[in-house]
Specification:
The chain has 436 residues and is mainly α. It is 76% helix and 0% strand. It has 19 helices and no strands. Helix 5 (71-79) packs antiparallel against helix 6 (81-115). The longest helix is centred in the middle third of the chain and has 37 residues, at 260-296. It is globular and about 70 Å long.
């Protein structure tokens, strides 16, 4: 693949993929878990700190190993082929399809509410959106990245207006960060862990830009810069947006309400303005789905190039005219369409966060392992304040994984089970490749 993605396009992919539905539609789930405005706001700050620490840590290995396949190759390089394959399998079967499906579902729901369609048409709208966006990604990689850059600029408009009007809202409700407390029927640690799991979906997606490492110009410099600058800006934006929501409408109306962004927009901008802002939010979700499609279609392609999937000779091809891995894209699309029918927004997002953070934590640990195993490895970028930043990243990741197993046991078992389904495929293809 050609190195045709600039720093600006890589940064737009980070910001455009991360800022999607989560910041607008996850506050209802976060508030349900925490039970108080103070802990809700704190969870958004903590999720940002953990994500930035992980971004700073993973950027070291991303700069040292700028290869197509990104995070899959980091796992493989450190732990062996079977672990790299399982990460790719989990991304192909769970992570990217669940992200695309969850965002398409919430887009369909909000689109139906905004324009007065019966709610039964929400799934149809979601299906049509996924099909339409994937068809655009078939045009070319350059077209997709340019569209992503345009979507990133457009989604900044509703976010900026929500933040500005929220901060200067004369009728805003008082919200204080301290003292921290959880709801009456929720223990502090349960509220913190549940809220953190929900909030991290909104920060999810930044690591996917590493899948484009083989196509980024000067990846040893531009990849780490895109991740770090993007995540820092996103954290500030998320805290301000959620502060605006919490001060615009009563907390009891936010709890478990996926229409919080719509209600807050109506309160801040009036009926017409609220609807226009909601259209801007839908554009933001649209851009996030495009980002996940752009990066996700590289996963089956990467596995196929290593001859680790059945029919690898077909899946591992790119279109001779556009450079798009067409068969790989169709695999991601097919699983996404199935998930649109089967899952709810919160179920899909919680499962993908659990699976993704399991492997993201392994990548952070890999940075420490490679420091000892290969001290002479060329590292154009090194994580600052080592080992403090990696400890925050690893500790935060372990907290998320362990608390999910404790608090949402069957969800975690489902994620582990779907990932483990890749083992028979791996050993079958390994035997097949040895015979040939």
């Amino acid at each position: 693949m050609k190195r045709q993605i600039s720093f600006g396009q890589a940064l737009a992919t980070v910001v455009g993929t991360v800022i999607g539905g989560g910041v607008f539609f996850k506050i209802g789930s976060v508030s349900h878990e925490t039970g108080t405005p103070s802990l809700t706001l704190f969870v958004w700050i903590l999720a940002g700190i953990v994500s930035i620490a992980s971004g700073l840590t993973v950027s070291e290995i991303a700069a040292a190993l700028p290869v197509t396949g990104g995070s899959i190759k980091y796992i493989e390089y450190t732990y062996g082929k079977v672990w790299g394959f399982l990460f790719g399998w989990a991304q192909m079967l769970v992570y990217f399809p669940a992200n695309i499906a969850a965002l398409s579902v919430v887009f369909g729901q909000q689109f139906a509410v905004l324009f007065g369609f019966p709610t039964k048409y929400a799934i149809l709208i979601a299906l049509l959106l996924a099909l339409f966006l994937m068809s655009l990604n078939f045009i070319s990689t350059k077209f997709s990245t340019r569209m992503q850059s345009a979507m990133t600029i457009l989604k900044a408009i509703p976010i900026a207006l929500i933040v500005i009007f929220g901060l200067f809202n004369p009728a805003k409700i008082s919200v204080n960060l301290l003292p921290l407390s959880s709801g009456h029927n929720v223990s502090f640690w349960a509220g913190l862990s549940g809220g953190l799991l929900a909030a991290l979906f909104a920060y999810d997606g930044w690591i996917n830009v590493t899948n484009l490492a083989g196509e980024v110009k000067e990846p040893e410099k531009n990849l780490s810069r895109a991740i770090i600058i993007g995540l820092s800006a996103i954290t500030l934006i998320y805290v301000l947006v959620n502060y605006a929501f919490l001060t615009a409408i009563p907390f009891k109306e936010i709890i478990d309400n996926q229409n919080t962004a719509y209600l807050a927009s109506l309160k801040l901008f009036g009926s017409l303005g609220g609807k226009l802002i909601t259209i801007g939010i839908l554009i933001s979700v649209y851009g996030a789905i495009n980002g996940f499609m752009l990066t996700g279609m590289r996963i089956p392609y990467t596995l196929a190039k290593d001859k680790m999937l059945p029919f690898s000779n077909k899946i591992g091809r790119t279109n001779i005219n556009t450079g798009v891995p067409t068969i790989s894209a169709l695999i991601i699309l097919t699983v996404s369409l199935i998930m649109i029918f089967l899952g709810t927004f919160d179920l899909l997002t919680n499962m993908l966060v659990f699976v993704m953070w399991t492997f993201t934590t392994l990548i952070s640990i890999a940075v420490v392992i490679l420091r000892y195993r290969e001290p002479k490895l060329d590292r154009p970028y090194v994580v600052p304040w080592y080992p403090i930043i990696p400890i925050i990243s690893i500790g935060g990741g372990l907290f998320i994984v362990i608390s999910t197993v404790i608090n949402e046991f069957w969800l975690s078992i489902t994620g582990i089970g779907l990932t483990a389904l890749g083992l028979p495929v791996y050993y079958y293809m390994k035997k097949h490749n040895q015979q040939n």
